[in-house]
Amino acid sequence: MGTLTTAPMTHHDPALSFESHLTQEMCDSVLASLRRRDQRHKGQLYVRGLLTAQGRKTMRNLATSTREPAAAQSLHHFISVSTWDWSEVRTSLARRLERALTPHAWVVQPMVTPKSGVHSVGVQRRFIRQLGQAVTSQHSHGLWLAGQSAAAPVNWQLSVGEGRSQDLARGARDGVPETSGGTWSGFGDDTAISVVLEAASWGLTPRPVVIDARDVPPAPLIEAFTAADLPFLLRVSGNTPLLAPDLSGGQRRVLTAPAEHLATLARSQQRPVEWVDPAMPHVLRTGLAAVLPVLWPGITVPRRPRPHGMSAVDPRRSGGAELLLMGQWHPNRRRVAELWLTNMTRAGRGTLLRLSKLTRRTDTDFTRICLDVGAQDFEGRSYHGWHRHMTMVSLAHAVRVLVREDREHADLERSG
């Protein structure tokens, strides 16, 4: 009886059948840049393993999802030893998802992967603000195409720190990029910058770059994205120094003050904004937002000595980038909840607030999908291997997202 009842679910479940068909179609399309037929075959096996293997996506676990002998060794070679170019695969995936998802923003999201050992590339002991403690971990940034209903990663950059080349085994060092000074690149804010600028070179339609930048210095981000002519929206900490009109005195002065203090001066300009929560579809929320024109000092002119505390500054001599500061408040709360800087000076507060909430979309899909398809399960030590694994993770994530989008579209049609 058990065989009779379970067989139809295995072979005829429409959801499973559609996911299998979409996996085949996506792999044929996205992996077409791989020149060798055996590489394209192994790539498809790897993606299917990420989608179907239970538990951690180890090589042994992935191999059990195939019916091929020596699959574990074959897949290991494909990820850690082979020479295929992950950037070409990511470019193809990004272009495909740009058409399928019509994203509103490029959200840059950090990923902290705890590690028990220190020999894998990029492993360091770092203080993680969200956890409130130091953790031995890999740290990376993903670039996500994010819309109201879905988000998917299309590019990754791994932070490898500086000066650790003597601490790692040869296999971990291989392929790690070096700066002109001989130290490893991709540390801290440089990782967030490089993951965006590389994707910007792929011919995608530029979207606002949305980043929670409270843990990195915002100056390099602002300078890099301004030079690349990219719109951005950066969440900043309350002590970030800015130049802005003095709203309290009624005189035409410009003062320098922390972002949180300037938001307090702009509280009289608060307006309610409704937004649909990307983390909870169909849930309508209301927030309070105010915007204030500000300047980011020190980008285009040499730094000048400033008096301690707040002081009047001549805006014609201060230099810097023209930006907007947006403060967000929860209803019935006096203290500002979030602070965001943007170069989209003509955007309304409603547009900016809704863009900022797309970080909730990436958080949700990272937790529900990306982790499940192996984002933190790579056990190898090499830089190349990590990047190739994350490329296949991105492809598997895209399949899951598109299956969900198709299912939700079908549900809407039936209910309509």
Question: Describe it for me?
Answer:
- Residues 31-253 form the Transposase IS701-like DDE domain.
- This is IS701 family transposase.
- It comes from Streptomyces sp. R28.
- Pfam families: DDE_5.
- The chain folds into two domains: 2-231 and 361-415, no CATH class; 232-343, no CATH class.
- It has 14 helices and twelve strands.
- Helix content is 40%, strand content 21%.
- It has helices at residues 2-12, 14-30, 37-52, 59-64, 71-81, 86-101, 170-173, 189-200, 218-227, 259-265, 315-318, 349-356, 358-370, 383-415, and strands at 105-114, 124-128, 133-146, 151-159, 209-212, 232-235, 241-245, 254-258, 271-276, 284-296, 321-329, 338-342.
- The radius of gyration is 24 Å and the shape is globular.
- Residues 1-11, 163-173, 179-187 and 301-318 have low confidence and may be disordered.
- The longest helix has 33 residues, at 383-415.
